[in-house]
Predict the 3D structure of the following.
Amino acid sequence: MLISITKVTLFPSKEETLVLNGVPALEEDRVSDGDQIERPVQYPLSLLEILKYNDINRWEKINVFLEEELITLKNIRYEILKNDTTLSEGDDIFPDDFLMTQKIGKQGFIFQDIFKYVDVDLEKVPQSFQLYRNDEEVSFHTAMFSGDHLRIAKKEV
């Protein structure tokens, strides 16, 4: 049995209809020896579409609580480059584009990362304060993990 498949690719199709011998295939069509099956792909596709199709997540995310408020922190794990240019998720990708990934050095989260996501009123922070993670004293450089409870409070003596 000879079945030839054209345009084998890791790119998704915006239209999921298969073509059997040059005609859009129906669900009940049977494939016979010598049939040509194609999966037409419409281009361009966005980088985000390609990432989703291939189940690739560029982001590392955790959820923490600061004074009982849920905060989601995220870091990009790696950049995607085309011709030495960093792409954003909305950029168009074509079949002959050559993409490279570049790992970003920072991984994980530390206490001070929370300040990228919330504004702290310094007037309300005690003069002698302490940082806490899950009711344990920590520093600005202490690692954080999903589910941690964080607070800034008066230093206990």
Summary: The chain has one helix and 16 strands. The first strand starts at residue 4 and ends at 6.
